[in-house]
């Protein structure tokens, strides 16, 4: 981090997953770190225990002693701390600029894609660490395997997610990159034009250093096309027969899967994962391909992957009581919902009872038809009102409209409830019976708390 020469860095919005990860790395590298947010979290409590100064609420006085200010996209420019930093002529960086400096000053390994970024990043970081590479890792979720959302390493590699949602991945110049897939999302930041998002991915791929490499899932036709014009070494993975890295002899269980990884037709190793689903096989292939191209022993990589148990809110098993299994997942895009429900079907239960809270009016608008087709594997579906995430309502884009469209397409009734935990838990308790999976999905601030409350209520139910 030779370009981050300031010694006291203040983070506005430090409770954010990406912000807290950068703050932790800088704190462990000897920087003075302070930060503010509207509420404290497990992550800010951890930072405070490590020596950071955490303020609740935003005031210009919180900047005392700071030489640099880092802020996230969720922080408005009229924030009193941003205004105070401007008046004091402090250096002000967006979160993506701070992360880019860390990645670009190292052998950065950036994971991009519409889905799977967090799981793949966590897998890659854990696996490289298990093989003695001692990487620095920053992920977009709390990982029990990493004891947080970041780890400081002394090795040459920095592993992090590359976020396409606000164009910020275009600030990166990674040594290596994984791109898991390209699908329409965050189109509100691309003028509603999917082609502009695709072009941004092309530009990101061009940012890979000439001596570096990319690992692309060519089950995705867009990535298959992009690979033809890569300006560096590029390798493919997937289930399609043309992929360089493929999985054979797949077997799935409720809590894991096994497969053989082959490279251009030659078997490299047998892999045993502690997570299930075809999507996790693809994530694992990306990690194994990356490590293989870094020259790391493939058997060490496979063994390290076997110790990965998932990131929080990524198909997280909250618990099972009286034959009812509660699982929590961050799924908020139609593709994520579909693969999550497919994984729920692998749990060898009788029914999948799903709850989903949509996030953002714009996403619901742009992907409305895709949402209507995403819940095929849910035997019972409960929808709640859209979580706006600061957006203004869009006429005609409501959960009621989505409910009606799903019912029309599937011929099955959909339950619509206000987003009140007590009402949702009460309804789920009425519906659930032994042999069910309760699949709680959504990217709202407290959907994870809903899953935990449901499990607690199941244990207390007479």
Question: How does this structure look, described?
Answer:
This protein is an alpha/beta fold and 462 residues long. It has three domains: 8-93, Rossmann fold (3-Layer(aba) Sandwich); 106-305, UDP-N-acetylmuramoyl-L-alanine:D-glutamate ligase (3-Layer(aba) Sandwich); 316-460, Protein-Tyrosine Phosphatase, Chain A. It has helices at residues 17-28, 42-50, 80-87, 95-104, 117-130, 194-206, 221-227, 278-293, 298-305, 334-345, 361-366, 368-372, 399-410, 421-431, 447-460; strands spanning 8-12, 32-37, 53-56, 68-71, 91-94, 107-112, 136-143, 148-151, 157-161, 176-179, 213-217, 233-237, 245-253, 256-263, 266-273, 316-321, 324-329, 351-357, 380-384, 415-417, 436-442. The protein has a seven-stranded mixed beta sheet, sandwiched between helices. Strands 16-17-21-18-19-20 form a six-stranded mixed beta sheet, sandwiched between helices. A five-stranded parallel beta sheet has the order 3-2-1-4-5, sandwiched between helices. Helix 1 (17-28) runs parallel beside helix 2 (42-50) and helix 5 packs across helix 9. The longest helix is centred in the middle third of the chain and has 16 residues, at 278-293. It is globular. The N and C termini lie far apart (57 Å).
